[in-house]
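Let us practice reading a record.
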Amino acid sequence: MSEPSTIDPETADWLTLDEDEEIVWSGKPHESSLIPALVVGIPLALVLIGLFVIAGTYLQRENTQYVVTTDGLYKKTGILSRDVQRIDFGKVQNTSYSQGFFGSQFGYGNVDISTAGGSGIEMQFRSVPEPREVQERINKRVKGSRGEPTTESGETTRDVLDEILVELRAIRSTVEAQRETTGNTSATTSNTGNAADERPTGEGSTGHSEFASSNPRAENATADEESADER
C-alpha cells in the first residue's frame, strides 16, 4: 500500500481540518515524474530554455501536495501563488486512474475524481505513487461516507455477496457438467453389456442351424446302408 501521511497538519498552514478530521494519506508527485522534463530539458540546456523547463517542473512538484482525510480530498498547487481545492467524499461520483509509459515503468500515475453534477474531472492527483492503491483508498472512504459497510479492501457487502453468487453459479455449472459426464459413461457401459449378452444367443442360433442342416446327411447315410443290406 501507499505510505501513510507524510505531512504535518501543524506546519501545513494551507490545510484547515475540522476538529474530528484526520489525515489518512498524503503525497506529492513521484520523483520519477521529473524524467520527461529532463529528457526534453537537457538537450535544450545549451540555449537556456531547457534549464527553465527543468526548474519549472521541479518547483511545480515541490509545491504540489495531495491529502486524503477522513472527510474529504485536498489538493494544493502553485509556485508564486497558492491554490487549494477541497472535495467532500459525499460529493464524489466517480474515480479512475491512468498511467502513461513512464508511469507504468516507474510506478506512478494520475487519479481523477469526478463529482455529482460536475462537468468532467473536478480534481486530479497527478503523478502520485501507486495510483491504484490511492484510488482504492479514496473509494473506501467514499463508500463509508454513504453508509455502506466496507471490508478492509474497500468492497461493500453487496460487492462481496455478488462475488459469492458468481462463485456458486460456477460451482453449480461444474457439478451439472460432471453429472452429465457420469450419465453418459453409465449409458455407454450399459450398451456395451447388452451387446455382450446378445452375442452368445446369436452363436447358439448358428449352432442350431448347423445341427439342423447336418441331419439330412445322416438320414441319407442311413438310407444307403439299408439299401445295401437288402441287396
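A brief commentary: The longest strand covers residues 108-115.
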